[in-house]
Structure formats: structure tokens, C-alpha cells
Amino acid sequence: MEEELIMVRVAELYYDEDKTQDEIGALLKLSRWKVGRLLTQARERGIVRIEIVHPRARRLGLERQLVERHGLTAAVVVPSPDGDDGTLERVAQAAADYLTAMRPVPRTLGVSWGRTLRAVAEALPDGWATGVTVVQLNGGVSLNRRSGGAAGLAVTIAQRASGHVSLLPSPAILERVETKQAIEADRTVAAVLVEAAEAQAFLFTAGPCDATSAHVENGYLTASDVEELARRGAVGDVLGRYIDADGNIVDPQLDARTVGVELGRLRAAQRSIFVTAGDAKHDIARTVVTSGLCSVLVTDETTARALLEER
Amino acid sequence: MEEELIMVRVAELYYDEDKTQDEIGALLKLSRWKVGRLLTQARERGIVRIEIVHPRARRLGLERQLVERHGLTAAVVVPSPDGDDGTLERVAQAAADYLTAMRPVPRTLGVSWGRTLRAVAEALPDGWATGVTVVQLNGGVSLNRRSGGAAGLAVTIAQRASGHVSLLPSPAILERVETKQAIEADRTVAAVLVEAAEAQAFLFTAGPCDATSAHVENGYLTASDVEELARRGAVGDVLGRYIDADGNIVDPQLDARTVGVELGRLRAAQRSIFVTAGDAKHDIARTVVTSGLCSVLVTDETTARALLEER
DNA sequence: GCTCCACGTGCTCATATGAGCGGAATGATG
DNA sequence: CATCATTCCGCTCATATGAGCACGTGGAGC
After folding, report:
1. How far is CA B245 from the centre of its chain?
2. For A3 and D29, how far is CA from C1' in angstroms?
3. pLDDT at position A121 over 90
4. B105 pLDDT higher than 80
5. Which nucleotides in chain D have some atom under 7 angstroms from a protein Cβ?
6. pTM for the whole thing?
């Protein structure tokens, strides 16, 4: 279109050549106002693209769309680096920033585990908050308070906020329902579960439903278990509970053997912050977002775009 | 750096959120002026990138650098499309635009041939100029005034400017020097050569020194001839004359058998417009530009960047 | 052929913004 | 410790810019 060509010319003179709208008008024989209007149109039509290039930048446009489309309280989207990856770190950093800035500061914060959350914990600065009690939401691996396992991450978050930590001394999934019930009946465990369920904020991730799952890695499930779950429609797990694309539990029997807060709690929570990074998790991320499991989403640009595509 | 983080935040609020500098100042507890300065810095440091996305857009920044660095009269750089190619068309379009806008309109325009110039000819609108005489600069293939060969392109350019055309009725390269001299002695040919040498503007391209060369395709040279030339340092040809990286004739004997205007004419000309597109021609393009064969360069972004790299 | 609506255009005016300046702070140097 | 240079900051003021409005024009519908 002829008009478009003029827009391009005007935009070049304005942005590349630092001419004033007046000058451009004189040059192209257009009124000053026409030039201004062409410029706004050029921005609207996306001919002029203004981009903020920085690892810590955010994609506010995408955030707005996500909040709008999926009824979230907030969304944080960071740019995905070009070819390579540092995506996880960027997202973790952004999540840490969000937590640090979050007001009011929650008295208790429920956390799940996984590589992503570990990165978030590491990205939190010392003194990111003061006096926050951190509670584990689901059973994990290492019971050691120091080490790098599921517990370590909760400990790190708590330490850096000069707060307490309540660990859930239980495996993620048990082999028999009876054992699970016995564990939950245990006073310490029960107390932590109550505390967790009542947390003022939740911070969690999700896992994809494939062999790379942490459950397989830690021996709670076998690769064929996961395959079977996928066959039955599971797209991934949240707090150790495998759900399908609609957010429903895929295998109630398995679920009954899983120790941790129930998903309903996340849906009911004021603030449940979901952190996800990487292409493998698009499906489970979509489910978490569309089935209302989170109110705040922290993710990378690629995932954000995937979540905005027509279902 | 801490400062940088604030710059990013400010830029986001300003460009993505359409806040005024005042508002941002209030929000981040900075003076209005500080905000303004951060914004300019962000642009300088390239944190804020303003890009004009359009096939017909030009890269004025690169053009400036090229003019500066290589002492050109003008440069036209169009964006290279992402993965695919329409690069040739874009460059041709840009060259056509340049010709159309060029003032003063030359009375006679010397043209070479090749796929690129053919595209330029096609991109020229009817009536791009009036009364321009088009002269062929070097020997070509088809002697037919209508068809799509070397001559056709000159005819097209002339027709669309309601002008005349002077074709050079000669092969590009002859087998024996004597034949070449005989041809040049021919009255018609000699007249055209004089006219060509005295043209007020030149429009030409260059070919890379490889088997894809038009000389091989048309049987003036064999693939092994070209190989040999490359071995002796040739990077490509201009008006059928093979030159090395410094712009010197590689094989004087071959050159003596080549019919057409001499390269010195291009160097001496007021306006000699060099059009080049595509990655294969970076080397010959560099030579043309650095050895002063052209005063105006029309090319794509990728080539432009290559020409700006430290030798 | 007439009317009316919608749109594009050029204007006035309030506001946002960048240039330039003097003073304060900071840091290097003797 | 004194001095000087350099940088940074907040301000004044001129200027560039966008919102809103009135007008003209052209096209659709009656």
C-alpha cells in the first residue's frame, strides 16, 4: 500500500534520522499532524517495533494478554534468549524478583520442589523478606536439612528470609495406600500438612509427563508407569499429582498414595505462584493456567506465546 | 549493574506501559530528569532498540556507517528477510527507488547485466524518468532487442523512461585478441563504447568468481577457467573483468579479450551505482567498495554488515 | 439529486520532553 | 589535608508533541 510506504519513510526519518515531525512534514510535504498520525499508526501496525533487549527485561505486552485471557492476578514473562538457553535462570530470577517485591509479605509460604524452584531459591537475595515461614507442600527426597534435595530448597528460601522452615518428612508417593494413610496420621506430618494447606501463598512448579520426570529419577515411579499415565491422558504433575489437560486427576488410586497438599488448595488460594520454563512444559503449563491452579504465572516468552495460541 | 536494571524498568514503563516520565519518576522515586537521562542512555546502550519492520524499510544506520567508512556518495541498505529469501527483489526494488529519485536525472545511463540488474529493470515503474538514453557497458549474450537476455534489460530500462537504448552488439569475451580488436574497430561498436564511456551515470553489478558465474553459463569461460582465475586471486568480475581483492585485473591477457568499458571509467565517474545482493558476493562487493569502483552502493543488510567488519 | 454520515484534515492548546546551566558531590592528585 | 577536575543532579526555559475540536469532502442511501 502507498500509505504504508510513506509510514515507513516517516518512521525512518523520525527514529533513525532524529528529525522532528515538523521537518519531516516540510520534507515530504505533509502537515505536521499528518506526520504525527502516520507515526502512531506505524506503531500500532507494528511497522515500528520498540523492543527492550535485556536478560532482565519483561514482556509486558504478553503479560497483559495472559492476565486478560486466563484471568490471572499477575503474570511475569521474560524474553527467551535467542538460540541458546539460560531460560531457566532468567525465569528463576524473575520469580525471585516477584517474590521479593510481593506485598503483603506472606507469613507462611508453601513451596513444592524441582529444578526450577531450586533455581528460584538460589536467585533470591539474602534478606529478600523477613520472618517468612516456609512450608513444604509435598513429599520429597532428602530429609537432610542442609543438602541440595527437596528440603534444601525450602531451607534456602527460609534462611534468606531469616524465617523458619517446616519440612514434610515423607516420600512423595508410597507403594501402598495404607502406608500413605499411616504417614499422614503421624503427628509431625499431619501438622505440616495443615500448616501447608493454610499457607498464605504458594510457590510451585509442574513436571511434564515423560521419562525425564523427577519421580522417575528418584524411583517413586518407573518409566513405564509414566508411559501408562501419559496414555491415560496425563500431561504432567503438580505437587506430585498427575493431571490431564482439563486439570483432573488421572489415576485416583495413584493419587491416594501421593503425600501432600491437595490441588484444590491451590485453586482456592489468594496467591498461588506458578513458575515454569522451557518448551517441554508447555502442555502442563497450559493445563495449570487454564484450570485455575495458579493466580500468578512466571514464565519465558516462548511458553507465554504458546499459552496465547488458540487452544 | 544496578543502574542498568533501573534503565530496563524505566524503559518498560515508558515504552510498554505508556507512562509519562513524570509518573515513572514518582513511581521509582527518581527526578523527572533522571528518568529522561536514563531513557536516552538506554537507547544509546542499545537496551532500547527501535526497529522498522518492513520489506521496503532501509537501514539508515548502516548506510551512514558505509558512507563514512568507505567514502561513498550514498548507500542504500535494505533489511535481509529472516530465514528465507526475497533479498534480491528487495535490493532491486531499492535500487529502482534510488534511480527514480535520483537528481539530476542523467542524460545517459550506462548499464551492465546480470540477474540482479534484470530484477532492477523489472522493479522500475513506467515513467521512472523521461528521455534517458541507456547504453550497454559490456558485451552480452542475446542481440535480440526484445528478449530477456543482456539486451532486454537495457531495453526495459530505456522503454520505461521513454528513452533510447544503445546495445553493444558483441560477445562478452572473445577467444582471440585480434577478434576483439576487430570488433572494437567496427564503427557501431566503437560508437557505443564511446557513448558508454561518457555516460553520466553507471549502474552495474558484479559476479562472484565461481562456477555459477554468468560467463560460464553462457559459454564465454569454462568452469576450469574460472577455477584458475580464483587460484590466481580473483574474487569476482565487474563488467566482465576479473579482479583480485585489491581491484586489479588478474589476467591481462583475458582482459584484453574482454569487450566493454574499462574499470577506470567507473572509478572516475560522478555516479556509479553498484547493486549487489546475497551472501555469495560479499568478497567481490568488498573489493568494489574498497577499491573505489562505485560511489553509490545498494545492497542488503547482511552484505552491509560484512562490509563493515574489520577487514 | 439531495441528505446525512463518516472520515480525513488542519487547527488550538495543554502537556511532555530535551538542551543548557549552575551548583553539589565525588574522587583523584599533589 | 587542600585543591582541582569531573561527574552528577535538579532546575529554567524553549520546543516538540498529542488530545480534542471544527470543518470540509466524498460516498452511500433514499
Report:
1. 17
2. 29
3. yes
4. yes
5. 9-12, 15-20
6. 0.79
